[in-house]
Structure formats: structure tokens, C-alpha cells
Design goal:
Radius of gyration: 17 Å
Order of helices and strands: EEHEEEEEEEEEEE
Number of strands: 13
Structural class: mainly beta
CATH topology: Jelly Rolls
Largest sheet: 8 strands, antiparallel
Shape: elongated
Helix content: under 10%
Low-confidence stretches: 1-12
Number of domains: 1
CATH architecture: Sandwich
Distance between the termini: 23 Å
CATH class: Mainly Beta
Mean pLDDT: 82
Length: 158
């Protein structure tokens, strides 16, 4: 399993808290949002790139621990492959398909040939994310890419 773990002892509850980070490549968990965008999107080993000449929408589903609903943070790496500045925007959708999901929009301006990351945490929703489902909907301008997705959860073992 890709990821790192940090063990923290919780003396108050006599529990063991495990902070777990999992990562995956965008080519594995992201795809064009509609068939109309498939011709623009290229799944490379290290990225999912928009190689077309118009913006394309992609959707990513991040893998979470089914035994935990204590989501700490998540992020996606982004890259500008062009010689012009570009803005990548993503909407994080955290929660279930029952009307209680949180939607948090973030954008990043990338200089030509630059990389960056969009990161979400509990502060974005005024507290803690309590959900097992995390997805992203991103707008990729031409010659931009999503690289690596990471998600961190806190597992409490009693």
C-alpha cells in the first residue's frame, strides 16, 4: 500500500490513533467527466493531461479508509505544461450522495511550466470532514495536468 503512517498514542481514550496517508497517480483514479472530453485527455504514467486546445473537465475519486470517517486532508498535484500562465480549478466533493456533501472550490494560478498543489483540510468546512467519500471535479485548461493525489485519514483503534 502506498503511503506513510505515523502512530500517536492517545492516553485519554486508551486508544491508538493511526495517521495514514495514501497516494495514487491521477491516471489511475481520474477520468474525463464526459465522453466529449475523452479526445483531449491523455492518461500518462505520471499524469492525466489535457492535450487539447480547449478546457476539459475531469473527475477523480480518491481512495479512503472505509473504517474511518475522520478525514484530515487531501490534495492533488497540478502542472502547467504550456509556455503561458494557466489557472486550474477543482471542486472537492466530500460526503455521500444523500444531500449532505460539502463542496469546496479551490484554484491555483500556475506560471509557465510550473507545478503546484491544491490542498483541502477541515478548516475549509469550519471543522472536521466527516465522510468516507472524497471526489474532485476539475477544469483543466489546455496543456495542464493532474499528477498525484494524496489523502490522509485518522484511524482510532481501541
Amino acid at each position: 500500500m502506498a503511503g506513510a503512517a505515523l502512530l500517536l498514542a492517545s492516553l485519554q481514550a486508551n486508544a491508538l490513533d493511526l495517521l495514514s496517508t495514501q497516494g495514487s497517480g491521477a491516471a489511475g483514479n481520474c477520468q474525463a467527466a464526459l465522453p466529449a472530453y475523452e479526445g483531449q485527455i491523455r492518461k500518462r504514467p505520471l499524469a492525466l493531461a489535457n492535450e487539447g486546445d480547449a478546457p476539459a473537465f475531469v473527475t477523480c475519486a480518491l481512495t479512503t479508509e472505509e473504517v474511518s470517517i475522520n478525514l484530515q486532508s487531501f490534495r492533488t498535484g497540478v502542472r502547467n505544461l504550456s509556455n503561458e500562465p494557466a489557472t486550474v480549478s477543482c471542486t472537492a466533493v466530500v460526503g455521500e450522495d444523500d444531500g449532505n456533501a460539502a463542496y469546496v472550490v479551490k484554484s491555483i494560478e500556475l506560471a509557465p511550466l510550473a507545478s503546484g498543489a491544491l490542498t483541502w483540510n477541515g478548516g475549509d468546512v469550519g471543522g472536521v470532514f466527516l465522510a468516507k467519500s472524497v471526489a474532485l471535479s476539475c477544469t483543466l485548461p489546455p496543456l495542464t495536468a493532474l499528477n498525484r493525489n494524496r489523502i490522509t485519514t485518522l484511524l482510532s483503534l481501541i
